[in-house]
Specification:
By secondary structure, the protein is mainly α. The protein is built from 18 helices and no strands. The protein has one domain. The longest helix has 40 residues.
Length: 410
Amino acid sequence: MILNRIWIGMFLIAFVVAASKLIFWHDLDIFKNLVDALMNSAKTGFEISLWLTGVLCFWMGIMKIGENGGAVKILTRLVSPLFSRLLPEVPRDHPAVGSMMMNFSANMLGLDNAATPLGLKAMKELQELNPDKETASNAQIMFLVLNTSGLTIIPVSIFAYRAGSESPTAVFLPILIATFLASLGGLIYVAIRQKINLFNKVVLAYVGTASILIGLLLYYVLKHPEQGDVISNVGGNLIIFLIIISFILLAAIRKVNVYESFIDGAKDGFNVAISIIPYLIAMLAAIAVLRASGTLDMLLGGIKTLALYAGITVTEWIDALPVAFMKPLSGSGARGAYIEIMNTYGIDSMQEKIAATFQGSTETTFYVLAVYFGSVKIRNTRYAVTAGLIADFIGIVSAIFISYLFYTHG
């Protein structure tokens, strides 16, 4: 419902602004510009979807190999000690644990649409353990906050959008760090609310080790800023390829038909990519008319003026804010905003890289909460929205800081 109102509002605002320009400033080309922008957005949406189709097919195929080869089960066993502390209401061998891990695995690959069915399955299984069927349980809130914080290891969709870049994977490590910080922030908030002991030795072993590794990486880049781009390119690509090789080798060792598994997953990837096209074009069209009417430029110009007044002279991040504004509401809206920024400022521009980091480090909080809680008829969501927004805010702030740290010394 909220996305419907936002979409209608974007067109109405664009019309009012355009009509004002025609009447008061005698801009005779304004409505021609709006129509041209609509046509171009439809064309751009389809072209981007073609790029996305191939990459989604590939990564969904790799994920299927990992699933059939047992990689997901191994990952589930590895993190089950942590999950049993963070989700004490859920038995270790409960089906919800496997469903949550599959959901997290899809999110880690940046496969938003593929993650949703798995998340809905996990939510329904958690509902079976929920004593109050209309009120969100602690386990459901923890799961959704970890879901909406969007921990992303390999942002597949973003790599696809950046196919024309000199280094499509250059955003890998900045996104990984920003999304980790967002997830950590959401986890800490929920743990405090649920009185979960984060100083438990098992929790500290997992969260502490990851935090130390991320901290050491940031420390090194701060000390050697000129190495940020090199680390992201070399280290990021090495990790990505190691994941691919490990999935394939594990499946081969277990005598899984690796090729057929890949084909089955790739077919699912094709279906996911096709399903994205209408949503992508819808949001591209709305953003295009806002841009063509001058509304978006006025909004961002106002924010930039305030930033300059406050003494903030580095302002490329402001141009990327439409992605940050849209992401909590709609994944397709954020995708549309990101592509609009890419087309406006160019791929590999600072604005585009920051927008890509926003896209990968935040999640569709309101959409996920509405769909997941709605699927099990939860009415009282308690503090889930607050926790999700805190994670998103941390992700946005982290993305800005880390983007300048990594991208300004290439």
